[in-house]
Amino acid sequence: MATLKVTTLLVVVMLLPLLTNSIQVNVDYSDPRYDKMLNTCIDSKNHKVKPGPEDKLHNQCSPWKRRSCCTHQTTHDAHHTKMYNFDWNHCSQKKNLSDKCRRHFIQDLCFYECSPNMGPWTVKVNNKFRKERFYKVPLCASDCTTWFEDCAEDMTCTDNWVQNMEWVPGLGNRCPGNSSCHTFAEIYRTSKNFCETVWDHSWEVKDDNQHCMRLWFNSSIGNPNDAVARWKTVQIFQAMKGGGGSRSVTWSSWLSAVVVVAMTNIFARL
């Protein structure tokens, strides 16, 4: 009896991964909603209507030139102007943003303006310069950590720059009246809190071994964020179809399962 129980347990343990891994979700890639989700730009002041190639994008934004939601002028402005009248040096009375920190915010801005992969995370908003934003986009933890470490000694006066800043017509943002400037390390404490809070939860930090977006990548081997967007789109289509859509089980997995059961029965009789 003990041998039979052990054998049964072994069968269950062996069959579960076989049956689970053999289930495949069939996505109808011809569905126009699929293309729309993967080939779209957010509805905003500077974004193109649809992503496409650009002959040239400025400096840090250049990795997106093969398929981009931004123009060359937008990327130039991202490097050399206060876009949306937002001043990163809002604690200039103590310290301007360092160059090593600034380059991360420029890269983040390039991602915001240029990425064609935001369809799965796009939500509606209502303000002067955009009707959509992205929300809780998975950001690889290593990108977030490097960003935070390079800004740790820079200064800010509030954690959520979207919700907490005061806005002066014609002048832009300024620190809230009851605030004082402290280092990023003091304000945010952790890299995760910084990345997720600074832009009002545009980002959600994920371990590098999960599906996550890269702010920095080598465009000569393609945009790794394309695959993340495709993965998320499949998840959304699954949910739309009630938790899986059509499913199929491969013959090889069924055959493996049958062999395991047969061998188990043989050993159980010994």
Strand and helix layout:
Elements: H1 2-22, E1 23-26, H2 32-38, H3 72-80, H4 99-114, E2 122-124, E3 132-134, E4 137-140, H5 141-151, E5 155-156, E6 166-168, E7 172-174, E8 182-183, H6 184-188, H7 191-197, E9 203-206, H8 225-240, E10 246-249, H9 251-269
Parallel strand pairs: 4-9
Antiparallel strand pairs: 1-10, 2-3, 5-8, 6-7
Organism: Folsomia candida
GO molecular function: signaling receptor activity
Signal peptide: 1-22
Q: Overview of this structure, please?
A:
The protein is α+β, with helices and mostly antiparallel strands. The protein has one domain. 41% of the residues lie in helices and 12% in strands. It has a two-stranded antiparallel sheet with strand order 1-10. A hairpin with a 7-residue loop joins strand 2 and strand 3. The model is unreliable at 1-25 and 243-270 (pLDDT under 50).
**Biggest sheet descriptor:** 2 strands, antiparallel
Helix/strand order, N-terminal first: HEHHHEEEHEEEEHHEHEH
Overall, the morphology is globular
Q: Give the number of domains.
A: 1
Rg, nearest Å: 25 Å
* Secondary-structure-derived class: alpha+beta
End-to-end separation in angstroms reads 12 Å
Q: How many helix segments?
A: 9
Beta content? 5-15%
- What proportion of the residues is helical, as a percent range? 40-55%
The mean pLDDT is 80
Total count of strands: 10
Unreliable runs: 1-25, 243-270
Strand order of the largest sheet: 1-10
Domain Folate receptor-like: 40-213
InterPro entries: Folate_rcpt, Folate_rcpt-like
Organism: Folsomia candida (Springtail)
GO molecular function: signaling receptor activity
